Amino acid sequence: MPTSAETYTSLLMNLDSALGDEQCGKLGNWLALVEQGGRVMNLTGLKEPAELAAELVVESLRLLGSGLPDSASVLDIGSGQGAPVIPLAVAAPQCSFLAVEVRQRRADFLLFAARRLRLANLSVAACRVEALPAAQSGPYDVVVSRAFASPLEFIRIARTLLSPAGEIRGICGDSAAEIHSAAAAHGLIVDELYEYEHGGRRRISYRLNIS
Question: What pTM does this model have?
Fold first, then answer.
């Protein structure tokens, strides 16, 4: 039996007290859509509601850190089912977001979810990031991703899309040394790096700035 949006909303209220009731409600609706769509679009392999909420929402919100700059333009590369871009768009309504997803069915899902949640600050591009049309090719204040590619590949691509004072934020399961190496190779400094365990796996969230 599908998990209701109300159940997910209640879970989120207990998992992340920083979210308001309306925000938890929107994200609860999104998680219910992900669960339903997962049966036909393979949106996630997670089956337990608590795992889904922790993996897609709580971990995504690590990328907020101390917040996003007011009116920041944010690009999410490889958005998949919407993590991290949908939780970020809900948590930071003052910012504008572009989700880039090459798989058409997932891009269609993102558009559907954005409309259902009434996220006027979220747009979707169904293409490879390298093929973004000129009007959407940046520069961006913040470029984010959650396990889109190796740190070296993600940072290489993201660096070309940054504004002069922009920053890169990511989550991955790679080593801290790889992140430091990739940052140095592209003239970036590691402003923040946090190692933690999530679902029994070692994870890293990081923030890079232009040096």
Answer: 0.94
